[in-house]
Prior knowledge:
The chain has 5 helices and 7 strands. The protein is α/β, with parallel strands linked by helices. The protein has a single domain, classed as Maf protein (Alpha-Beta Complex). Strands 1, 2, 3, 4, 5, 6 and 7 form a 7-stranded mixed beta sheet that branches. The protein is elongated and about 60 Å long. The protein starts with a strand and ends in a 6-residue tail after the last helix.
Amino acid sequence: xxxxxxxxxxxxxxxxxxxxxxxxxxxxxxxDETPLVGESPKDLxxxxxxxxxTAVASQIPGAWVIGADQVEELDGQILGKPGNHQRAVEQLKxxxxxxxxxxxxxxxxxxxxxxxxxxxxxxxxTTEVQFRHLNSQxxxxxxxxxxxxxxxxxxxxxALGISLFSAVYSNDPSSLIGLxxxxxxxxxxxxxxxxx
Length: 196
């Protein structure tokens, strides 16, 4: 198999990809993640996944490059990573008792030396999360325990954040953490890269 690269410095995506037992390296795609004017949450997730994968693929011909990005949606609006405690409190209060959608775009790309261009597959995976009704004490306890300030939605679904939910609806549970492994395995298989 050609070199496999994860176009991300996210420890969460790295942890997920390690589950597949594949050898890979990580590389920062250095992509501006600012939404475009009028861009929908789904379109943003797809565009960023594709830009991340193709940015790295164009630098390393022949390598298979995985790009992924997750965007949280509430009532058609994009909710970003909180960045600090106060914004995380505000996000969790807003999400309390409500359903949110997490759109995860994934792209597998390769600069084909034979064809002289980038070939790619792009997919979107959406997870619906129903939050429990949360009071201020629960929110504070949770944030102090997990410190999810670099996570969309102000929670870590792979850790204590699961306690904030009453239900999760998804066809790929890894998508909620930021890298849909079921989709990735299918995409790899489509190009003859079998896992396991």
